Amino acid sequence: MRFDIITLFPELFTPFLESGVTRRAYASGQVGVHLWNPRDHAQGNYRRVDDRPFGGGPGMVMMAEPLQRCLEAARQARREAGEPEPAPVVLFSPIGTTLRHAVVAEWAQGQGAILLCGRYEGLDQRFIDTHVTHQLSLGDFVLSGGEIAAMALLDAVARLQPGVLNDEGSFQQDSFNPALDGLLDCPHYTRPEVWEGREVPAPLLSGHHAQIERWRRDQRLSITARHRPELIEQARAQGLLNAKDEG
Ligand code: SAM
Hints:
Elements: E1 2-6, H1 13-17, H2 23-28, E2 32-36, E3 50-51, E4 61-62, H3 64-80, E5 89-98, H4 101-108, E6 112-116, H5 125-131, E7 134-137, H6 147-159, E8 194-195, E9 198-199, H7 202-205, H8 209-227, H9 229-237, H10 243-246
Parallel strand pairs: 1-2, 1-6, 5-6, 5-7
Antiparallel strand pairs: 3-4, 8-9
The site of S-adenosylmethionine has 18 residues, from strand 5.
């Protein structure tokens, strides 16, 4: 899968792509990442990529023309690499669908996309109307740019790829995963067994697999009921809770 990212700040991605468990996925191209800067496709001595908004008001707006030339360069590179066409064009925006596990899981099974990171007040609407096929939001707050949202999508997609995490299948033990019936994760403990007078829960030290699994399931159920009761309702509506869960 290949992601082409259009951003005025490609340098922000360097430490992200080179760190942590997902870096192998980016380095090997399992989740290929290619960076494009609209400034490289702007014209004139100043390589201008933004201008004042018509109608007045604060801030600047990203101009359509450099964005379109940059998008065309990314599309051409994808064609030359034999990527399937047409690629989805995703704009990160507060307008978009909020990123949730189900949304990430769909992108994780796809062929990749061209990702647009907005800056300033956003992009000229005519460019959005002409080219954007999907909009994604990180949540109900405003970021200074779409780069952090792009990194969030890339990271979440990469960790769902087979073999990316050190422990095969460990992402299935994470919050929201259908393998855990969409519940939140249970608490985790490591050595020492007693820390500042606090003990590791006894079932985790029992060595008894069924007892450990029951304790983890009960913890997931109670944490989810406390923090995200609607997820319990969803699991119940889907018939995923059994008599022991409900007991
Ligand atoms: N004027 C815009 C508004 O009020 O909706 C905010 C623009 S914001 C300062 C600049 C860019 O950050 C946006 O174009 C978008 O790409 C990105 N951005 C801001 N908030 C976001 C969010 N919640 N999710 C995803 N991207 C976001």
